[in-house]
Amino acid sequence: MPNVIIKPGWALPERFVTPESVYTSRRHFLSALGLLGGGLLTGLRAGASAAEAAAGSPATPAKGYPYARNAQFAPDWRLSDEAAATGYNNFYEFSTSKTRVKDLVGKFVTAPWPVEIGGLVEKPLTLSVDEIVAAMPMEERIYRFRCVEAWAMIVPWTGFPLSKLLEKVMPKPEAKFVKFTTFMRPEQAPGFRQLPGYPWPYTEGLRLDEAMNPLALMATGIYGKPLPKQNGAPIRLVVPWKYGYKSIKSIVKIELVEKQPATLWETLAPLEYPFESNVNPKVPHPRWSQATERMIDSGNRVNTQLYNGYGDFVAKLYNPA
Ligand SMILES: Nc1nc2c(c(=O)[nH]1)N[C@H]1C(S)=C(S)[C@@H](COP(=O)(O)O)O[C@H]1N2
Ligand SMILES: [Mo]
User: Fold this and answer.
1) What's the per-residue H, E or C state across 53-88?
2) Alpha helix (H) ranges present in the chain?
3) What is the Å distance from ligand 2's center to 244 Cα?
4) Cβ < 5 A residues, ion ligand 2
5) What is the pLDDT of residues 67-118, one digit of tens each?
6) Partners of 303 in the beta sheet?
7) CA–centroid distance, residue 243 to ligand 2 (Å)
8) pTM greater than 0.85 (yes/no)
9) Pocket residues for ligand 1 (CB within 6 Å)?
10) Are 163 and 211 in contact (CB under 8 A)?
């Protein structure tokens, strides 16, 4: 990673920032209506409290947390509300209802959690998440996050560059892509049986050069604590310049492969969720515009940015000089 601090061309103009007092009171109002972050009324259930959201968190003590924030990724942005970010989730293994996921993760066992790293590598490894955390340069980074459904958030992730883990296994020259696989345990997650036609397990992929980009982060935490189960405990990917579905959760396997891997979403709907999936306000989803996005907590609409604002880091991957 360069030592210079790259100019934050990705910083949001001040006018998009909601004053703290305004969003806090609005949040309490929305929460009381069960509308927090979702805009969806879930029956007569009250909205999620922070305590409910925390119930999905791992019980193990948060050893080492919080990790130091990396100054290169510490812009002066207002963070999205934590209860919104941990209570409004896409995690189809549990539910297609974003506000219900956090209430359905109780049976999901996230420790111990071995991760297999293999395929076209010199040194295949199986490491527990604890071993990974102990071996990797853990840090906190504030990233913008943009779902293909046109909602967005700004959150502090704890993790390490994916490149550091890949360097450990030494990819062979034939390796051109990285394939990621999520757990598959229908007895612990009700969504598998509700979507029997889906090509489970959830898989995703990156080109190897994308995976080696310093922005590609493996996350084990959010808001200075280990990931709550609903956010992809105990380890997930975060690719901030691509739509959120690329940021695969609860990873059990990482494979270096020669050919572009099939992914769950591309298999289901290739025209809607293509492999590359870079955030681009000028390329509409076949069924909706991608020009703007809704911040999950305030409800504010902001302009979507090319590469989600991270062009300084990644444009070179797509427009070779
Ligand atoms: N295994 C798995 N990973 C997943 C998903 C999923 O359903 N299953 N949803 C994706 C989508 S569409 C988004 S927007 C993000 C949401 O992450 P969050 O709930 O932490 O905000 O997770 C991504 N990773
Ligand atoms: Mo998403």
Assistant:
1) HHHCCCCCCCCCCCCCECHHHCCCCCCCCHHHHCCC
2) 20-32, 50-55, 82-85, 129-135, 162-169, 191-194, 208-211, 264-268, 311-318
3) 4
4) 90, 147, 244-245
5) 999 999 999 999 999 999 999 999 999 999 999 999 999 999 999 999 999 9
6) 292
7) 6
8) no
9) 89-93, 147, 182, 202, 231-232, 244-245, 247-250
10) yes
